[in-house]
Amino acid sequence: MRSPGEDTIAIPQLVEPVALDDPYHATLRALSDRLVEVQRPIRILDAIKWDDSVRAAFVASGAREQPRVDRAYYEARPLSFDPSGLIAEFVDLERDIVRNLGEYNQVGRIMRRMCGEYRMVIRMLAARGMPAFSELSMRLYGSANDVFHAGEPTLADLGRMMSDTLDNIDESDLVETEAKTITASEAVGLMQHRLDAAFPDPLQPVRVILDDGILADASAGADYLKIRRNARFSPRDLDVLTVHEGWVHLGTTLNGASQPLCTFLSKGVPSSTVTQEGLAILMEVITLASFPSRLRNVTNRINAVHLAEEGATFRDVYQYFLDGGFEEEESWKNTVRVFRGSTPTGGPFTKDLAYSKGFVLVYNFLQLAVRRGRLELIPLLFCGKTTLGDLPILAQLRDEGVLAPPRYLPPQIAEPSALAAWMAYASFLRRLDLSRIENDYAGLW
User: Fold this and answer.
1) What pLDDT does 168 receive?
2) Which of 71, 282, 303, 339 has its CA 20 to 30 A from that of 107?
């Protein structure tokens, strides 16, 4: 499979223009643009982040006191919008979608569901620092105690199983950790080169910029990639960023913005976050960009959220990361990811479950698509900020000419022969009983 570091990263596809002189098309585009505009003030991570003064006080206490974050902390940092007024705008929009498109219009159903999710997001943000924040987070992003199917393991079980496997990998002398020798400034130049090759439209350029205000080492926006100014990277870290933030997050945003009618696909609600993050992790794996310590970060997020759901405080989770070998700064950042928007004793913000939950869901979808010979459905994952549940509707819209094909596709999706071969074998292998195989192979170790 092609390396993420090669110059030719994504394959541009031709998007045919759609005339808006058709009344239905014009109405659909107007409602879609309106949804994009109404959601514009909502910036979840900006609304729930903790400022540097919180960490300074925590460090000054020798990490013996809980961070000084309560309901009053958030009230002193008001939202950039009026929650009641914005909820009313979404209610009006949803009503107009029904009036103009009809109760059973398929694309209208997607937009109405998005309106409902945005209203719940607003309620969650209005509840910052209160127990309802974590409760609404679990409704939007899920819980570590969720199962994929009745009677099967939970996400928390997945976290424990992955941790055990990664512990065994750590004992191998063949897996080495690359040194983080690339500065943030150097990463900006290297990533700009890669993303220029991935998205070569001078009328829709992608910028790579330094930023001091993000918690993660890097974060994708609508047409930019932010790199945290004091972060450092290994070459493999940049491969992960290329695939995860570039090919998937930026690619699907640009593809959604290029839609002639369904421009709302450029914006994601929590349900699409699960699909997006799962797709991003899956692409890391199938491009061979991922590596054990990267997966351990993802796995630790499940474990940390589960601890918080079971009543662990900020200091408890912080100690969990310290005991896992993380430095103090990394332990702080990882723990803040779990408690931002909440309080140190108020339950977790569960968005970080989306990575592993989404991976399992997207992987299962790909297996079924290959088994049933429906490879044409796979590129629909990249046409914008989609959800798995919307794919049947999106396929219908594609056939009707309402949905344009994704403009940018990773090579492994544009030409999915190797992916299909892998999934064809995987579909059989998952039927085997690994515990019995382990007994059969016992003499090999």
Assistant:
1) 81
2) 282
Distance (Å, rounded) from C-alpha 313 to C-alpha 403? 46
Report the distance separating Cα 243 and Cα 413, nearest Å: 12
DSSP state string for 89-155: HHHHHHHHHHHHH-TT-HHHHHHHHHHHHHHHHHHHHHTTTSHHHHHHHHHHH--TT-BSSTTSPBH
Distance CA 270, CA 257 (A): 18
Query: Three-state secondary structure along 148-165?
Result: CCCCCCEHHHHHHHHHHH
Q: Distance (Å, rounded) from C-alpha 132 to C-alpha 137?
A: 8
Q: State which H helix or E strand residue 358 sits in.
A: helix 354-371
Contact 248, 283 (CB under 8 A): yes
Pair 222, 204: CB distance under 8 Å: no
Asked whether the beta carbons of 63 and 320 are under 8 A apart, the reply is no
Asked whether 198 and 9 are in contact (CB, 8 A), the reply is: yes
Dihedral of alpha carbons 252, 341, 351, 121, sign: negative
The gap from C-alpha 102 to its chain's centroid, in whole angstroms, comes to 32
Sign of CA dihedral 267, 272, 275, 281: positive
Tens of pLDDT, residue by residue over 75-130, are 999 999 999 999 999 999 999 999 999 999 999 999 999 999 999 999 999 999 99
pLDDT lower than 70: segments of the chain? 1-3, 5-20, 171-174, 434, 444-445
* Phi–psi pair at 173, nearest 5 degrees: -80, -10
Q: Which amino acid is at 344?
A: P
